[in-house]
Amino acid sequence: MTKPKIALFFDWLNQWGGAERLLLDLISLYPDAPIYTLNYDPKKTPWLPKNKKIISSFINQLPFSKTNPVIYTPIYDIALEQFNFSNYDIVISTTSVLGHSLITRPETLFICYCLNPNRHLYFPLDKYFLLKPLLKIYQSIDYLYSYRPDNFLTISKTVSKRIKKYYHKDSQIIYPGTNLKLFHPVSKPKSDYYLTTSRLVEQKKIDLVIKACAKLKKPLIITNTGRLESSLKLLVKKLHAKNITFLGEVDENKLISLYQNCKALICPQIEDFGYTPIEAQACGRPVIAFNQGGFRETIINSKTGIFFDNQTVNSLVSAILKFENTTFKPSDCRSQSLNFSRSAFMLNFSQTVTDLWQKHQQKHLKITSS
Fold first, then answer.
1. pLDDT tens for each residue of 283-320
2. Which residues contact 97 (CB under 8 A, 6 or more apart)?
3. What is the pTM of this model?
4. pLDDT tens digits for 38-51?
5. How far apart are CA 219 and CA 209, in angstroms?
6. Which CATH class is domain 6-177+341-369?
7. Which residues, at least 6 apart from 318, have a Cβ–Cβ distance to it below 8 Å?
8. Which positions fall inside the Glycosyl transferase family domain (predicted)?
């Protein structure tokens, strides 16, 4: 049987995060597949394999596309429809924006690995209420695009429910995975600080963690950077919270050590999946997390972590106090993480694509022979 020719699509290549880590796993699975993307900035993607074939849209040549690509949002779908996938048997789109709008031939298997429906269309902020009529129009167009993929895959039950709600489509859940050989417990963790590792941006709600730990006078270590770094440091200064430390970006070995020796990882944000709780649990450490989204699928409440129900300082404070009066076994945390291994993801994803390809070929054969 001839090996199918595969192409990958990824919304944009201009940063590093959980979605980009997932892309690297897909690149490992399909090393010969080129990557199509709306926007590509080589300076911001040193993590990509050298000599990887990248095909970017015409937006990449427009002014300010590297520094502020969001200004071209109204023409994203036009740019995507210019891509020619006629030479490929399988197109795999990993997307949280418009990657389901690609145009492929009927004989090409188009798989959409949906990280989330477009947040700006379905979860608009209150400040966009004047644009509600326009959002309805874009939602209708987005719904029509959902008929283009042959199959939807997704990263969690949380996102699967959204795909059903907004697109009326079923989706198969394939959880991303973590390299559990790297993340492992130590025999005598120090357990003398709390840890948060998210990017320092609005939606990660790091200010809640700062205020809660300052109120309780609990040691907190904050890693990573982001546009709120200066304002968050100013907040710590105003609170006179000498127990809170910013480390900025840390390398993998340092991050693993921080996981291994923390009291708990604190995750106050909503995530559609989220790697960090799995990494912490793989290191035998529990997680204090907001009781929404993908965290509910990766953390066992009162066994490998504690949930809090409201994104408020008081709710998080109560969760920390409850955590400190609860006993957690490192072995339980480690055991839970084993459900989300990278090896399981790689096997599951590749087998799913193979099965879908075989079914697609059979379906197409019946159509052409009838």
1. 999 999 999 999 999 999 999 999 999 999 999 999 99
2. 11, 38, 76, 118
3. 0.90
4. 999 999 999 999 99
5. 11
6. alpha beta
7. 308
8. 187-333
**88 Cβ contact list (under 8 Å, min separation 6):** 5, 6, 7, 104, 108
Question: Cα(117)–Cα(132) distance, rounded to whole angstroms?
Answer: 17
Q: Which two tokens stand for residue 301?
A: 């409440």
Hey, what amino acid is at 195? L
- Are 95 and 112 contacting, i.e. CB atoms less than 8 angstroms apart? yes
d(CA 351, CA 349): 5
Q: How far is residue 81's CA from residue 115's CA, in Å, rounded to a whole number?
A: 20
Overall fold of domain 194-339: Rossmann fold (3.40.50)
Q: In what order do the strands lie in the sheet with 151-154?
A: 54-56, 35-40, 6-13, 90-95, 109-114, 151-154, 172-173
Evaluate if residue 126 carries a pLDDT over 70.
no
Closest-CA residue to 308 (of 223, 208, 222): 208
The predicted pLDDT at position 135 comes to 84
Domain-wise residue ranges, the chain: 6-177+341-369, 194-339
Query: Per-residue DSSP letters for 112-132?
Result: EEES-S-HHHHS--GGGGGGH
> Rounded CA gap, 19 and 238, in Å?
35
Query: Which residue bears the tokens 């973590």?
Result: 178
pLDDT confidence of residue 70: 80
d(Cα 277, Cα 269) in Å, to the nearest integer? 12
Q: Which amino acid is at 6?
A: I
